[in-house]
Structures are given as C-alpha cells and as structure tokens.
Amino acid sequence: MNQDPQPNPSPNPNRKPPELKPGTVKKLVIGIAAAIVLIYLGSTSFYTVQEQERAAVMTFGKYSHETTSGLHFKWPSPIQQVIVVPAELTQHITIGYRQNGNDITPVEEEAIMITGDENIVSADAVVTWKISNIQSYLYNISNPEQFLRNATGASIRSVIGSQKLDYAITDGKTEIQDQVRERLIELQARYDTGIQIIDLKFQDIEPPGGEVEDAFRAVTNAREEKNTKINNAAKYENDRIPKARGEAQALLEHAEAEKKSRILNAEGDVAKFNAIYAEYAKNPGVTESRLILETLEKILPGAKIFITNSGSDTVNYLPLNELLKNNASSASSNADTSPAPQGGNEQQ
C-alpha cells in the first residue's frame, strides 16, 4: 500500500541562525590568520634562479650576498628581498639603429657624428656585454642599458672626432674600432658599473646618403684599384728581379770562367815560349831551322817541294805543273790496265 510523501515543512521566517560561542569564533579567526601567514611565508621565503641568472639578496634593504641557479631560501619580506638579474647571459645593444626581427630602424641621432676634418659620417655599431659584478650593476648606475648606450656613443664620437673622414671610412676602421672598445672599457672601470665589455664591432662607417656617399664610394673604388695595381706591380717586380739577378750572376760567372781560361792559356803560351827560348839559347841554329820547318808545315800542309841545284848561272825552267799532271794520268791508266795477280811465284 503506497503512502503519500509528507510535504516539506515551510521555512520559518522568524527562526534565528545558531549562535557561535565566543571561543569558537576566536579559534576560527586565529586559524585563518595562521593560514594566511603560512601562505605568505611560503610564497616569500623560497625563490628560484634560472641557469643564466644570478640573484642579489638584500637584508633590510642592504646588499647581503648573491646566489646562483637553483631553489633557495630567504627570510620573508621585508626582512630579505631578492633581485634576479641575467648575469650569466651575453647581451647585445645596437648603436645607430634598432633591430626587431628582420626590421631595421635607423636612429640618426646616435649614428650621425662629425669627424676631425669637420665632415659628417654615419657610424653603426654592436656592443656585446654581460654583467660582471651584480652589486655594482644594481647600485652604481640607475639605468645600466641606457648608461652603456650613452657611454658607447661618447666613446665613438671621441675617437671619430679626432680622425679624418677619408681615414675613418677606409683603412682606419679597424684601428678606430679598437680605440673605441678601449675607451668604453675604461669608462666602465672608471664608474664601476659592473658591466664587462666583451666586444665592439662597427657595422658601417660611411658618409650620409646622396652625392657625398657616391663621391666617397668613387674615391674608395679608386683607392682599391690603386692598391690592386700596386700589388700587381710588386708581384711583377718580385718575379723579374730574381730572374734578372740570376741572369746577371750567370753572366758574371761566365765572364769569370772566360777570364780564367784566357789567363791559363796565356800562362801556357808563356811557359811554352820560355821552354823554346831555353832550347834556342842552347843551340840557336838548330832551333831556328826547326821553327822554320814547323812553320812551313803549318802554312803549306799540302805543298810539294822540289829540290834543284841552283848553283849555275842559268835560270832553270821546268814545267812542273804539266809534269805532275802527266805523272798522275800515267799512274791512273797503269792502274786500270794492270792484269789481276796470278797465283804462284814468278821467276825473273
């Protein structure tokens, strides 16, 4: 048998909420306060330092010590406070322009400056730096990045202001860059900024755009062409001079050899003459005859000599040339008609 459910009693508007005892309220307030304190202590007593960061811990507003990467404990604020800085991170600032991704925006007030010969030049640079001393970085300068930017601009203007434009945009770029870096490092040390300058590189040192830039570009091209021709001439000189020196040395050695050869020949002739003269002094007649005969052999090597008696008063005339020709003809004909030799001995 089903029974009808009892209807819900209607609320009584005159009913009062239960009253809490004074001790319970006090305990509840103390518990809430304790929870708040614990949450506050937990949120302000522990802090984390990332890998490329370091933290400066200040006790009652005064620098106390620094911590490296990891989870650390400190007294809750306001007893101790922590300032985390990217001390292990290498940072960069640009002078003369700003770069956002691939977008580059020139900053003319930083780039434009005057050279020592009162010309205008535009210089863009990149400074690489990092924090070397956290205490100096936090307490000695109010805006470290702006201070570094101003110090870099002052160093660049100081160096370029003492150089000529032609030197600054051509051969002097590297030297000017080194001088600016040294002055910037000196400024950081003088003001104890806690900033370490790692490097400074110029992107461009050039005249402002327009006709001036075109004129200086033409001057630069002409100077480069001049240097190229000088280098080519020096290369040709280095190639030709050793060859010429070698040829000259060869000529000198050949002349020296010829000189020694002639001296030796002359000394040989002198020795030969002295030997002949010694023999001549012993027997002049025999030596004279021998010399005459040797001379005749040299000047008449193929001559035929006929000896005749020239003691008579008559002139001897002999057709010597015709006799020689007839004798030569007879000898050749006899040689042609002579029989072949026979075997055996011929008896007379």
From TrEMBL:
Gene3D superfamilies: Band 7 domain (3.30.479.30). It comes from the Bacteria. GO terms for cellular component: membrane. Residues 1-15 have a biased composition (Pro residues). The keyword Glycosyltransferase does not apply. The chain crosses the membrane at residues 28-49. It is found in: Membrane. SUPFAM superfamilies: Band 7/SPFH domain. This is Protein HflK. It comes from Paenibacillus soyae.
